């Protein structure tokens, strides 16, 4: 009987990879609360994100997240809806160049977990421009096994070659900085 000789270090590496792959589960979106807020020369404003596509892998242990990978978040620009009505919506779609670039996308490139905080490094693409971004996401494993991911991120529209919307012949101007607020509940894919 012949035995294959696998170097001990290679065997450890193979076992660790198997454990990591086994521990991670694919998750899908259960529910979301997401909005974009900003200012203008007339009033502050809020746009609600009506639909979000989310996918990714998460490893949990007890009530904490241990690892997260392969996250992709997609939002159709036309799923942004303003409390101020259609005029604001149309100005937003124009700023995002939604006819040419209909989707906002975040792709995770790496993540580190420290307690309940996930530092999520990734690429954000808006209006056809992709930029690296680092998000601090608060994570929590809920009683039903789903995971809550929440936080906020300020973004300067001009960094994505977006012109802040204007109205009434330029007398009302939106501030160039906006803030994305999010609370996502994701659950293991069955």
UniProtKB/TrEMBL annotation:
Alphabetized Pfam families for the sequence: YceI
Residue ranges of every copy of the Lipid/polyisoprenoid-binding YceI-like domain listed in the record: 26-187
Signal sequence segment: none
InterPro entries according to UniProt: Lipid/polyisoprenoid-bd_YceI, TTHA0802/YceI-like_sf
Name assigned to this protein: YceI-like domain-containing protein
The organism of origin for this protein: Solitalea koreensis
